[in-house]
TrEMBL record, chains A, B:
Gene source species: Aliarcobacter skirrowii CCUG 10374
Reactions the enzyme catalyzes: a fatty acyl-[ACP] + phosphate = an acyl phosphate + holo-[ACP]
Protein known as: Phosphate acyltransferase
Residue ranges that the Swiss-Prot or TrEMBL entry lists as coiled coil: none
Function: Catalyzes the reversible formation of acyl-phosphate (acyl-PO(4)) from acyl-[acyl-carrier-protein] (acyl-ACP). This enzyme utilizes acyl-ACP as fatty acyl donor, but not acyl-CoA.
Sorted UniProt keywords: Cytoplasm, Lipid biosynthesis, Lipid metabolism, Phospholipid biosynthesis, Phospholipid metabolism, Transferase
Source domain of life: Bacteria
GO terms of biological process kind: fatty acid biosynthetic process; phospholipid biosynthetic process
Example GO molecular function: phosphate:acyl-[acyl carrier protein] acyltransferase activity
Amino acid sequence: MIRIAIDAMGGDFGPEPIIEGLILAIRNNNNFTALAVGDKDILSKLIPTTFLNRIEIIDTKDVISMNDHATDALKRKESTIYKAIELVREGKADAVVSAGHSGATMSLATLRIGRIKGVSRPAIATLMPTSENQNTLVLDVGANVDSDAKNLFEFAVMGQAYAQTVLRLDEPIVGLLSNGEEESKGNEVTKEAYKLISKIPNFAGNVEGNDIFKGTVDVVVCDGFVGNILLKTAEGVADTISKIMKKDLKRSLIAITGAVLMRKVFKNLKVKVDYAEYGGAPLLGVKAPVIISHGKSNPKAIKNAIFQSLLSASSNLEDIIEKRLAKYSAKEESNCETTATTL
Amino acid sequence: MIRIAIDAMGGDFGPEPIIEGLILAIRNNNNFTALAVGDKDILSKLIPTTFLNRIEIIDTKDVISMNDHATDALKRKESTIYKAIELVREGKADAVVSAGHSGATMSLATLRIGRIKGVSRPAIATLMPTSENQNTLVLDVGANVDSDAKNLFEFAVMGQAYAQTVLRLDEPIVGLLSNGEEESKGNEVTKEAYKLISKIPNFAGNVEGNDIFKGTVDVVVCDGFVGNILLKTAEGVADTISKIMKKDLKRSLIAITGAVLMRKVFKNLKVKVDYAEYGGAPLLGVKAPVIISHGKSNPKAIKNAIFQSLLSASSNLEDIIEKRLAKYSAKEESNCETTATTL
């Protein structure tokens, strides 16, 4: 049985949608038990007694709020996210799911669970919808700013390993996000990263912003500053299109009738672009699966985040990342030796 | 009479849409004459003789194609874009419009027309639609990668001046694109740029990717690498939403009927997100108006680009940019002197 630690209080809407999502997950999957970290008085009222054989409540009252600084998280040892992370560190849980303060989750996971050997900086990966029957994994979408070429190289290795072992893609193709497809395009950091990433199999070279939504490649690598901006831009465009249409709709009864007839199309579109369908964003590069969920997660999003953590926990992702990074860095050293000998 | 030089051969679809756009512009505006640079044999067949009192053909046959390197542009002195730029340099034209090789246009404009005093790097600005009755000017969207804090500061000054003098906004608000709103957010370069831009009036601080489409501010400043990615991301999201819906539509006659009833809404949306409505992208920071149009420009886009160049040519944009940059740099120096005296 896989054991999932859940920060049951961290989301924007309190414990209700999180517990509801957890119960949905339990109903649909028999292979795990949960450690729900939060206020016992509150949680025990939300969890029907029939589920108590699958959910253990870990009682604690402090919650890191969205307004707190991520740096405070390390000192607040009684907080739900601190305790959830500690359960993994102590081997009492196999993975963590949190819809709480993402900066706090990231710092605690990195410092308390620790980085995989060879990883300089963990990265947050997220799935983006495409017009085809597939999604694109983009990383980093916000864990790091000012990533250097080596960081981007590690993101490429971690993203490819995740696509292979957790998303079960056969030979995931990796692209490097740039301002043009040609090898000559890019800024100083991506040009250097291009050379490093060329060492890994199935590297497609540079890709552009629109390639993410075309599904040109399976994994897109970028710096977290750029990744955050592209994520927010994508959200902004989708919201704006919907707003412009709604405004216009209100002006015409004919158009409203049309929208009613088209409701299935709109519903399918919503499903396709709804982050709740994708669960949460894995923090790649730490020694155990950590899933960072949206603060506004509904029960479906939490359910999917739990399923995602189960897939990760039953894979050998961390091993594969460690081995591949070791292999590539050995190659680099032996290349250096060859060069040295030649000289 | 304002004189506009037009690279009549540079677009992806040859001279037809460009001459058609030029004629549309002439029909709607009596205040300019055009210098159409291109193959006289071809152009004279496309231009009805009744328009020859407003259009002078400057005969030359060489065209820089999209596959040529921007660096070649400087050597090919008989090319349409080289000659169009030279017309401005020699004072025979007041502004340039080109749908040709944007890299070539940029290099030639920067090197042959020259930068405004105080500008380190010219930047490309573009208008993005919002859900409100306004647009957002974003710069730089591709002229520069690895911009430093001083470059971003100059983009802020140039963008604000353009919004004021050409877009006729009263007190344009400027935002700095970052990965969060708080002053503490950003990468090394944007954090330093934040301090510099704080010196100009109506600076709203950091803005995020979605703010561009909400219309939170009038001018958004970013590095060209990031600007290119956000532009392509926005295009990609809009295309993907349309593709997903079209695919779904095909499966249901009811939905198709709905789409027919909604066609006005879709048409309005298309107008709102169609770049042809916005004309071209001004290259800010050179001594004369240079409008870079999309290679795939249709006649409407060319017409609007010409109108845009007319607005710029009849403004005192270049003067204002020079004066403001001089004022801010004087302030900086006097601040330094004060500090030195205090010490």
